[in-house]
């Protein structure tokens, strides 16, 4: 005689799958938004490292193109570049608003990346 739980549902497994599905559903938009932020910040770091050989207009143009490529709002392309003499460094920053959209809820966020590099 075979006894077992064949044919019976295990609630623990169903609940676990539901939680994973919810995490993926909400995590993808959040992950995409923060991935764009980190890509933009990385490009800002690259431009700051080469700022000693590149003029500010070229840096702005490259960062504006990167913002457009990533599909960021227009505000992300408005880059501030400050060259300081003490300490000798370049500071590149920008700010843009974004909204994380969830079912029945919208969360406004503001990104403010800033990078510094020595000259």
Descriptive overview:
The structure is a single chain. With 119 residues, this protein is an alpha+beta fold. 45% of the residues lie in helices and 26% in strands. The strands form two sheets. The protein has a three-stranded antiparallel sheet with strand order 1-2-5, covered by helices on one side. The radius of gyration is 23 Å and the shape is elongated. The mean pLDDT is 89.
Tally of extended strands?
5
The general outline is: elongated
Number of helices, where a helix is a run of at least 4 consecutive DSSP H or I residues = 2
The overall number of domains is 1
- Across the major sheet, the strand order is 1-2-5
Low-pLDDT segments: none
Structural class: alpha+beta
How much is the radius of gyration in Å? 23 Å
Gap between N and C termini = 81 Å
Sketch the topology as an H/E string, one letter per element.
HHEEEEE
Strand content: 25-35%
Main sheet overview = 3 strands, antiparallel
Q: How would you concisely characterize the structure shown here?
A:
It is built from two helices and five strands, in the order ααβββββ. The chain is α+β, with helices and mostly antiparallel strands.
Task: List the SSEs and their pairings.
Layout: H1 11-49, H2 56-70, E1 80-85, E2 88-93, E3 96-102, E4 105-111, E5 114-118
Antiparallel strand pairs: 1-2, 2-5, 3-4
Helix pairs in contact: 1-2
Considering the chains and any ligands shown, give keywords for the structure:
alpha+beta; two-stranded antiparallel ribbon
